[in-house]
Structure formats: C-alpha cells, structure tokens
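Q: Sequence in, structure out?
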Amino acid sequence: MVWALALASLALVSPARQAGVMRGGAAAPSFVNAAVARAPRDGAPRVHMASCAKLTEAAALLDSVDVFIFDCDGVIWKGDSLIEGVPAVLDMLRKAGKRIFFVTNNSTKSRKGYVGKFTSLGLSVEPEEIFSSSFAAAAYMEQIKFKASGKKVYVVGEVGIQEELDLIGVPHIGGPADAGAQIELKNGGMVHHDPDVGAVIVGFDRYINYYKIQYAQLCINENPGCLFVATNLDAVTHLTDAQEWAGNGAMVGAIKGCTKREPVLVGKPSPLMIDYIVDKYKIASRNRICMVGDRLDTDILFGRDNGLRTCLTLSGVTTEAKLLSQENQIAPDYYVGSIAEFAGAGVKA
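A: Exactly. Output:
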C-alpha cells in the first residue's frame, strides 16, 4: 500500500518528466526522468538567496521541526570517520522527542549492513530508521511485481542491492561475482548474456569494469522490455575523508551512453522514499520535516521538491562558495558548518 501511494504520486508528474518508453512500445514505469530538470512546484525560480541563511539560532529551527531526515555520507560520517559532534546531536534530538531517519543514496550496503556501520562508529540506530537506495530499488521491484515475471535482475553494484533483493525473493546475477570478469577481444569474440534478465539495477560499484558495462547494455538493448534502474545519480561520493571520489553517476552514465536510455531513479531526489516515510509513520505535516544533507542536487532538491524544510551542511561535498555562487540554482532554507552546530540549542521537548 505504501509503495503504491509513492508510485501513484509519481504518476502525476507531467509526461515530459516521466521516464522514457520501454523497448517494444510498452509504457515505462511512471517515475521521474532524472535527466530532466525539475521545475519548482509553484513555477517560481528555485533560488531566492535572501532566504538562504546561515543558521545562527538553531533552537528556532529545531523547535519547529518534529522529524529530522539525515543524509549519511558527508553529514554523519566521511568514509569510515565519524564527523565530530554527531553523537551528541543525535542524543539531544532523541531526548527532545524528535523522530530521526537516515536516508542515503549509497547502495553498497543493505539496511542490515548500515546498522553494522552505525554500530561500528558507536551510534545506536534501528533498522527501521534507515532508508538506503538499495532498499528503494528492491521495494520498487516488489511494487511492480517483478518477481511474478519470472525474470532475473542483473546487478551493477555491490552486496547491498543483492541483500535487499534476497529479502523479497527476486533472483539476481552479477554484482561482486563479476568483479574480476574479463573479456577476450579476438575475431568472433562476444559476451553471452542471459535472455532471462528483465532488469538491470545500477548502484555504486567500486569494481565496475568493461565486462559489466557490456553485459548491462546487452540486456537493456537486446532483452525486450528490460528495465534500467538507477539507485542514484550522485556525481561524487565519500570513500575516504581525504578527497571526493567518482560517484554512481559515473556508472549510470557509462550505461546511458551505450543504451541511449534514461534510468528509473529510485534514490534522492526521487520522492519514493519520502512518500514511504510520510505514509508509514503517519506524518501529518511535511513542513515539520527537515532534510539535512551535504548535496544541493540530491539532498536539498529532494527536500525542496517534496515540501520539506532543508538544511545544508558544509561538512561534505558543498562549499559555502559554491552554495552562494550566482551559478547555483538550488538553495536550502538554512546552512551550517556541520550538524554539531545543532548541539546546545535548548530544544523544547
């Protein structure tokens, strides 16, 4: 029921913003075409920089918010390093009766895997508080009743996607098993692909190679009706705390380039996960939800397009100079150096 509502909301977008047509002439699932720029709901220009203010009175924001949704990479941690001040802030919010969720575009782990990461960093988080794009991909496949098709999924990605597919009983191939796969280029050389693959899911893959790209494009281009699903389109990501690394946008881009197909996007800024959270937890007012993230084009866009308050943290990929530049077309309601600035705000329970 929850995912039906999420999909129904996506079906209301204009045709220009829907995903393309599938091979064989069948209508593609009515998800937003991630490659098409989203217009603000009211048609007004997206940025009003006067309304983008550095948060100086945290209590004013925190007292007017019931639910905080945090991105993980660049907000809670960088690579495997916890960002300073995070434990105290989360404890303070919980004691104040705030509901907390973690919504991440990183698909390398399942919800179970993320519980392990939180625990390793000394944070106590329940599985129900975590929404990853690997979970969103599996939930989408469940919603469209992919299992009933008898088809398989080819995974370009890591174990997170596979573990979530296992939970819903959808067969899959690829993933880490193809990490060392090689091709032999000689006369008559070819990659044989499985004609029973009915969907290709592309998530972040540290071990992507030419074989995986070739296999994915063969499935999409040659298997009638094969779906192309992307967990996210993030340009860069945090693998370590030392620098930025190429994100899943690079993996998706490689396959877009050889298929000329736009993927079904299930991660941020798609509304899929927020619609699920709002319905499942009976949240009455989206205006009392605050999305806190380090990315303008995913986290803040996700919040703005879905009627949430937004707070950008500069502890991740976005600098203050980039935020305030004339070229930026996406503005949060507030921004902070890190969520450590929420601490000591005297939040009312």
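Confidence is low (pLDDT under 50) at residues 4-50.
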